[in-house]
Specification:
elongated, 4% strand, two-stranded antiparallel ribbon, 3 helices, mainly alpha
Length: 111
């Protein structure tokens, strides 16, 4: 199932927001070990700069990998290994329907 650009952005923002607070906290703890001393406002500003860069990077990579995935789907995944080698049919939600899997499941239930 394809992820929309909007959901890619929501995911990237959530990821980076958590990363911002982790980075600012670690930065406040690590900077003094290297002789750097910054006021809390400076830690926030430095964190904001790196957060902006991280957000752009995360979104761009997400879109790049989505484009690669979509291209593989359009080509019939000819250039990538089949993630479901025994899959007889892929459903719209990406689930594999394999007669072999169904038979094994039915056999294990009746045993």
């Amino acid at each position: 199932m394809k992820q929309s650009r909007a959901m890619s952005m929501v995911e990237a923002i959530a990821n980076v927001a958590v990363g911002f607070w982790v980075a600012v906290t670690v930065q406040a703890l690590v900077f003094p070990l290297f002789g750097f001393h910054a006021a809390p406002a400076q830690h926030l500003a430095i964190g904001a700069i790196f957060t902006g860069v991280s957000l752009i990077r995360s979104f761009a990579l997400r879109r790049l990998f989505e484009a690669i995935r979509q291209q593989a789907v359009r080509r019939g995944s000819a250039h990538s290994p089949d993630p479901h080698p025994v899959c007889d049919h892929m459903t719209d939600d990406g689930l594999c329907q394999s007669m072999g899997e169904l038979r094994a499941l039915m056999a294990s239930c009746s045993a």
